[in-house]
Write a structure and sequence with these properties.
It is built from two helices and nine strands. By secondary structure, it is mostly beta strands.
């Protein structure tokens, strides 16, 4: 069992690229960075996954109709950094969010527009 306080110990089976490949495409990777294109179509929910590295997420298509879902399938309050940034966002231009590592969960897009962005993960 992995130590949830140590993202480096999290199960690689649930890494975003491995567990949710339809939503996370690697567009660049080296020993220090991994750059993902992240897409969540309308009325879609990602499979259970995690992001074990801190990142910068640049969202060029985003709306407030997305929700974090727990591993148990419960809708979570908007406490994660990206959800708080969406609530504070003025809706103009892209949204840039500094992200902490994310433990197991998934995002549900209940809107009628896709979510899209580039996530730059800092390894180690």
């Amino acid at each position: 069992m992995s130590d949830m306080s140590d993202p480096e110990s999290w199960d690689l089976e649930f890494d975003a690229v491995a567990a949710a490949p339809d939503h996370h495409k690697v567009i660049f990777e080296n020993d220090r960075l991994r750059v993902l294109e992240v897409t969540l179509p309308p009325n879609d929910q990602e499979p259970l996954h995690h992001h074990r590295w801190p990142s910068v997420f640049v969202l060029d298509a985003i709306h407030p109709d997305i929700y974090d879902i727990s591993p148990e399938g419960e809708r979570l309050p908007p406490s994660r950094d990206v959800m708080q940034a969406i609530e504070a966002w003025d809706g103009k231009g892209p949204l840039v969010v500094n992200m902490a590592p994310q433990p197991l969960g998934r995002v549900h897009n209940t809107g009628d527009k896709a979510v899209h962005g580039i996530r730059i993960e800092m390894k180690g």
